[in-house]
Amino acid sequence: MAAVNAFPATQVLTGSRRLRDRLGDRLLFLLTLLAALVAIAAMLGIAYKVFHGAWLAISKYGLGFLTSTAWDVNKAAFGALPGLYGTAVTSFFALLIAGPLAIAVALFLSELAPRAVRGVLGPLVEMLAAIPSVVLGLWGILVLGPFVAAHIEPWLHDNLGFLPIFSGDPSSSGVFIAILVLAIMIVPIVASICRELFLSVPHELEDGALALGATRWEMVRGVVLSSSRPGIAAALILGLGRALGEAIAVTQVIGAGWWIHKSFFGPGDTLASRIASQFQGAQTKEQTASLFYLAAILLVIGLVTNLAAQLIVRRFEVQRTGGS
Amino acid sequence: MAVADPSYALRGEGRSRRRRLVNRAAEGVALLAAAAAIAILAVVVFSVARRGFGQLGFGFLTGDLPLFGQPGGGIAPLIVGSALLVGIATVIALPLGVLTALFVTEFAERRSASVIQLTLDLMAGLPSIILGVFIFGLLVAGHKQSGYAGGIALSIVMLPLIARSTQEVLRLVPDSHREGALALGASRWRTVVGVVLPSALGGILTGTILAIARAAGETAPLLFATSIYANTVEWNPGHALPNIPVQIFIWSESSDPNDHQRAWAAAFVLLLFVLVTSLLGRAALARTRKKLGQ
Fold first, then answer.
1. pLDDT < 50 positions in chain A
2. How far apart are CA B202 and CA B191, in angstroms?
3. A41–B contact, CB cutoff 8 A
């Protein structure tokens, strides 16, 4: 009994203040819950609106839309295949160029560079990611395109022209330029994720390998790279997702053409670039719905790639934290 | 008898020499890759600065957009419009992002937290052209283009960025602070408002600055929401707002070399803003991390 009296504050709390606290707790909880629900609702709303807009085209063309190469406004015949092809080709080759480059950059920044150099170069590489895509596209079409058409494409054509992809005439806009611009966009994304990964490799493992007489490269290959493999895969997939969905820079440099050509030097189109270039000026209901259909396909592809990357990351994190 | 030739071990031959060469080569490749990445950044920034800087002047920064085919003109309407759009987006995304982050770190159970986390990650990875199409279907189709539509589209870009950076700093606030406040008899909401949020404030602000830098350069979400506009300064977000990214896109697609010149100048202004803001944001972020992580 005496112990209770030693805490008179408990008596005060039963009054109006306790009520206010309980209301406050409730209110803040509901407020934050509401915000979280808004985020989920926005995601669902996006998916609903895109599929809703595409419904006319989905019901009219069905899954045949995916395999049709048509894009004829007057005949109301539309298909997605050239865009799917363009998206796949540009993203894949961009990743092929950017992936190894980004991993090498990340290794340099996390393992090789002296501490002072790291502090300067790390943020600079991230600045590359901050360049707005419309600025990169402007540079791509007015500077990179003409340079590549004058110096690099002729060389590729002369020396590797037996490959169908390098068989065409050089051009300052087209699929090849789009691949290069996308590669530039992916490098900083993949590099900064990989750098974080490599820095999180336990130092004892690295030191152990070096103490056993491994060279720096052997240590990197045997310890750093092999222990972060799933993380690297996730980083590459995230980079791929960025490339698949990029609309503006690609529209600026790819030159527009709804077809499947072997040569990379000519113009083409991706799903995103088609939407960006035609949506505003769409003339018929079918055309608008078909562009929405392209957006729906892009949405599904984007969600699947991101989901795959997130799943890998989550499992990988459990592995790493569970192991130690 | 066992006098080994010291030069043998020192020079390294055969296998050990090959290992050393491979190591050298790998280090060289990594160095070259890093140099290439920095060189690309330098070349892009230099290209834009060289072509854009010369045209900047008082008249260009304060003038109205040029009428079709006429020389001269300025980008004042673009600067005002972009500021308004990013402002609207921030007003929407900042409270939503912070509250969502609070829900995840302070209130939610593990499972609902991971659902919302996943939603935010997916939102961050959404192709931005999808946002453009979405906002057109939601607010523009059947009505007209408006600054509000553009601002809302940009807020969807900013929301996951702000939510994620806020979560990160909220996690850095030591649990002992929360426990201390609760032990003193403070209620949950007083703990959050009085203890947790104030120590996370710096981090939330820098996260917001980084999100603003990102949103200012986004073109695709605005492309169908606010791309047909007057050539004068527009303050009313009920109308379509001229803005820098969409105008650079329009000018870059034009065949008129004058338009290309204007695109370079506008790109220089945009790039300068984006790079300076994200540099400042990053520097501040590094400081916050250091401060909170002991």
1. 1-9, 323-324
2. 18
3. no
Look at residue A252 in the predicted model and tell me its pLDDT. 93
Most A-contacting residue of B20, B32, B41 (CB-CB within 10 A), to test interface: B41
Distance CA B55, CA B52 (A): 6
Contact A40 B119 (CB under 8 A): yes
Q: What is the CA radius of gyration of chain B?
A: 26
Contact between B217 and A133 using a beta-carbon 8 Å cutoff: yes
Tokens of B155: 């807020």
pTM of the model: 0.91
Task: Output the six-digit token pair for A272.
Answer: 């995103």
Return the number of other C-beta atoms located less than 10 Å from residue A261's C-beta. 19
Please state the separation of Cα A137 from the chain's center in Å. 17
Q: At what angle do helices B128-135 and A285-323 cross, to 10 degrees?
A: 140
pLDDT at A5: 47
Cα gap A194→B122, rounded to integer Å: 20
Q: Do A237 and A92 contact (CB within 8 A), yes or no?
A: no
In this predicted structure, what is the pLDDT of residue B150?
Answer: 96
The interface predicted TM-score of the complex, written ipTM, equals: 0.90
- Of B101, B122, B119, B103, the C-alpha closest to B167 is B101
Picking from A39, A124, A245, the nearest residue to B116 by CB comes out as A39
CA dist., res. A230 & res. A213, Å (int)? 27
Chain A partners within 8 Å of B96 (Cβ): 35, 38-39
**Chain A: nearest CA to B275, how far in angstroms?**
7
More confident residue, A172 or B96: B96
Contact residues on chain B for A101, CB-CB shorter than 8 A: 33, 36-37
Contacts of A105 in chain B (CB under 8 A): 30, 33-34, 37
Report the SS3 class of residue B239: coil
Contacts of B270 in chain A (CB under 8 A): 132, 134-135
- What are A139's two structure tokens? 């540079």
For the ranges A7-11, B45-49, B206-210, B269-273, which has the lowest average pLDDT? A7-11
pLDDT tens-digit map of B33-88: 999 999 999 999 999 999 999 888 888 898 899 887 777 888 999 999 999 999 99
- Residue A175: CB atoms within 10 A of its CB come to 29
pLDDT of amino acid B142: 83
**Which uninterrupted H or E stretch holds B51?**
helix B14-53
Q: Per-residue DSSP letters for A142-162? A: IIIHHHIIIIIHHHHHHHHTT
Assess contact for A123 and B279: CB atoms under 8 A.
yes
Q: Band the pLDDT of B10: cuts 50, 70, 90.
A: low
What's the maximum distance between 2 C-alpha atoms anywhere in chain B? 98
**What Cα–Cα distance (Å) separates residue B16 from each residue in A214, B8, B24, B29?**
10, 11, 12, 20
User: Would you say residue B213 has pLDDT above 90?
Assistant: yes
pLDDT tens readout for residues A188-239:
999 999 999 999 999 899 999 999 989 999 999 999 999 999 999 999 999 9
Instruction: Give how far Cα A106 sits from Cα of B33, B73, B90, Å.
Output: 9, 44, 32
Question: A255 — contact with chain B (CB < 8 Å)?
Answer: no
Whether residue A279 and residue B136 make contact (CB cut-off 8 A), yes or no, is: yes
